[in-house]
Amino acid sequence: MDEPARVALALGSGGARGYAHIGVIQVLEERGVEIVAVAGSSMGALVGALYAAEKLEPYTEWVTQLTELQVLRLMDISFTAPGIIRADKLFARMHDLLAGVLIEDLRMPYTAVATDLLARRAVWFQRGPAETAVRASIAMPGVFTPLMLNGRVLVDGGLMDPVPVAPTAAAQADFTVAVDLGGERAEAPAEDTDASPARESTEERPMEEWVDRFRRRASNLFDQEAMRSLLSRLRVAPRHDGDATDDEDRDGYPSGLRAFDVMNQSLEAMQSVLTRYRLAGNPADVLITIPKDACRSFDFHRAAEMIALGRTIAAEALDRSGQVR
User: Fold this and answer.
1) What is the pTM of this model?
2) SS3 state at 183
């Protein structure tokens, strides 16, 4: 009888899309694969730690029952801390699952990747309390409060290594599977998948030349209500300066455009480029790519949907690779 394939797993950052990691792990296990090492950034660090600690099943049961209102209640908003969201209630649930768990005692080698904000370098946590390592790795700058540890200001690992393949290099694995949560949109036009610079004039063009492009790209940034407001505004005739409506602030920006959305999309744009660079230097044998428009970063009430998507895309990627049937 053939022994099961041994796989090293690299789980990327991407907020609520990280639920897809659960579906990927489920498919690998169903195909008889033995996961022998796991590394993760941000949400990937959380899912990886829970899996290595054999706590992923109760976590999955919990998140698949969360409603949007319950998620909002878990977020502790702060206007004075170094992060908009304290998330003390959310971290309390993580504590329930990982309290007392040491990385060196896990059933497989595990690495949580964080970023030392002052030194501007990645930090690999491979020893010590798993809960602390995860807390450091998921601290999205400006959103979650950073973690102070041993003189380091630690934030999201995705800033330096969005899909951390390198920490798995020493694993005795037959092949490496990486999960990128920042893939191109599911039905992205060719112009949107081109990484070369766009050449544009600062001269304003007629609205009919750009409104369709704006609608396609903005659909991932705004919620449905804001998008309806924006599209309604775009269909009206141009106004004279100073005639702002409820859908537009006095500076001309749509009311649906929040500072958090701009910050989040900026981080994702940076991480998209960094992921390509990192994966070119440390390629995975199998790359599973979740489209970045699958859900927004804080749609944590969509766990069941993202897990199902992770299962589907993982099965397709594994079939194409021929590594696991």
Assistant:
1) 0.77
2) strand
